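Teaching note: in complex prediction, the entire set of molecules is handled at once rather than each chain in isolation. The prompt given to students was simply: 'Predict the structure of this complex.' The entities are:
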Amino acid sequence: MSAVVEQAAQTAPDPRDRARRRARRSVTLGVGLTLVGLVVLVAAVSFVWLPHSPSDTSGGRLQGPSGAHWLGTDVFGRDLTTKLMIGARIALAVGVGAVVIGAIIGITIGMLAAFASRWLDDTISAVLDIIIAFPVLLLAMLIVAAQGASLGTAILAIGLAMSAVVARLTRVLAKRVLAQQYVTAARTSGTSWAGIVGRHVLPNIWPTLGVNLALQFGVAVLAEASLSYLGLGAPPPNASWGRLLQEAQGTVAVAPVGAIAPGVALVVLVVGVNLVADGLRDVADPTRRRSR
Amino acid sequence: MTSYLLRRTAFLLVSLLLAMVVLFFLLRVLPGDPANALLSASATPEQIKAAQEQVGSNLPLPEQFANWFGSLLTLNLGQSFISSLPVGPEIASRLAVTLPLTLLSFVLALVLALPIGFVAAWKADRWYGLVLSAFSQLGIAVPVFWVGILLVDAFAVDLRWFPSGGFPRDDWADPAAALQSLALPVITIAIVMSASIARYVRSATLDVIGSDYLRNARALGSGFGRAMWRHGLRNGAVPIISVLGIELATTFLGAVVVESVFTLPGLGSMLLTAIQQHDYPDIQGILFVSTLLVLIVGFLADIAQRLIDPRLRQSISGNR
Amino acid sequence: MILDIQGLRVSARDGSALVDGVSFRLDAGERLSLIGESGSGKSLTSFAITGLLPEGLRASGSVELAGVQVIGAKERTLVPLRGRTASTVFQEPLTALDPLMRLGAQVAEPLRRHLGLRGAALRDAVRAALEEVRLPDPERIARAYPHEISGGQRQRVAIAAALACRPRLLIADEPTTALDVTVQADILALLDSLVAERGMALLFVSHDLAVVSKLTERAIVLRAGRVVEENTIERILTAPADPYTAELVRSARELDAALEVP
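The expected output is the structure of the full assembly:
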């Protein structure tokens, strides 16, 4: 029987099909990584070099793009390119910070819920569902309003709000793994709970969870942009792209670049991260139908 | 079905109660005594004590909650710390702006998303299918307020087709003027939401097109279009309806943000002001109303799903 | 001749051939099996007959169904043939039936389309169709949803819908593979008697030699999209010409032998 199966497998059309799919996958992943890499590059460069000092207001107010000021100046005469580059740092800090916080808290709570007794688990998931009913932004707004607007607070607030979503997903995934037979087998052969988590649960939930966290990165960046736009975000010198848009809104007719560039930057970063997430999803589960 | 409705309604009320407890304590946990909102920086101890009494913040927390909840049951949402205006009527008049804004945006988003998602799936290998998919990708990456800013610049400032902001002072007395003020905000929100919903429509359509029941129906003589209509529509609607509740909540949130762009006197701007001023009654009242709305939407979505999908109604006696 | 296939080739998007040069004929009332492992192209061949290949696959060659050329034909040419000239029963009835629609309505669909029945006449025809597949209590079944009945019953309903308009050719694509073993024999017996009663041609697709030998006398063995042997079942079992076929037979016998009590 094995010879027959081997032969059939060898001549089956799969290998070419799979290769094609891998190529397609890498386009999504590749483009995404390029876009994100672009932003990372700009942020990295900003630590070493900036076209002008961020507080230099000598450029003349609301100038258009020129040789000295590639994207023009803002209403106070500050160089827009400089502000944009600093904004890249902030956006990445927000994304990474919020996701890390959300992941640590969310995964912990989710795991607890998955392993907990029925009563505790039900309570936790009820509370989670309620928190999730509130959009991330609303919760973040409340927390920031209480603590005062700063970068740290914004990151903390978004991360906390996000942890509920991460917790719920972790719980669902972990429970699914725990219900599998190989876990029961591992338990009966004496593996400790810690071992179960490390050897079976985490590796199995990591792909889906990782993709979700990548998507949350984009959510966090957009949430912070909204917070800043509403005046609840970090003030300069930690001005994010959202804040730049809020500042430019009043003068959009006179100096459109100021209202366009930060928005484009946001789109580039978030699209990039989403494409990376999609690409990772295809890599993690190649049997999935391509949903691009 | 009736027993399910009763259970679900009970669940809704319990959720509402639980949510309010969580929010109430969350707010109180914030640093700063609520009474501070009433005081100036140089308040005397007597003034502080009087303010605390007025606000009730010197009482133990559970008692504060009981008081607030008690007045809630009589539909009294309290009074604003800042303006002393009753919270309830203020919210009602703000809802007169935010609710139409949310609903109109949602409907427009659906009207756009359904064909976009469908064609993106049906013609996934043609260029226009790919373009529509790209639109969805971009649409979910774009900040809604940025779209608002750009649209204001293009259509209100440059072309002067619409007002760049504000809402008629006499609300809906002149519906045409009110709608004109809402036009750009509605379009703004709808563009972003349609991109999001289109993704779900696309996914559901792809599932339907590749499904066994569609192939079976065609194998027995139904044309593609007819089979999609008779089988695809209902089956495709199931996963879409399950996310529509969340999407509506997100639309509501988009409205809150967009109200800032267009200076609309809606719930969003009220919330923003209340947050900045630590006006607890206002904040609580708004959160209560929004929670209630969100939970009701979830309730309706659940009911709709059960109506469409008989598998969810499976009785214990069904044999397999 | 109800079915005439010459040099059928089904290629994937990248050009690779999933079915390559398959040819066979089927006369009215004749029975033929397509045997093969997964990936042999047997299902694709059967789909190609009614022009229902999955997206992205292209068929070339010649497939004549009751004299109508299927390859390259427009949808509107093929639609009247499906369910009426040739009908298909698929492997998994749970997914082949619309989970949100009552079974009676699903059986009624081809009856309404092809025979134009309505109202009471339609209801009677549905009932008759369900009775013909030996379903007890057809009224209850007609009102039920797919998830409310057993797998065997579901497949009977699917067969009822497929045979409702008296097709001349029945294509059965692994119709018992997804069913419990105890139910398989019943369904096969049902198919056998219905096909015989109505004098239909039968194209039976399967990987299971034992199942196939119960229903048909002739078989074609497919491997990697190509025909490797065409013969009577008896010959295939006793004197297979191709080494691959021999291997298939040997494995099937091994499984069987495991059941023999020494």
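Point out the following to students. The mean pLDDT of chain C is 90. Chain C touches chain B at residues 50, 52, 54-56, 75-76, 79-80, 82-84, 87-88, 90, 92, 95-101, 109-110, 113-114, 145, 147-151, 158, 161-162, 165 (CB under 8 Å).
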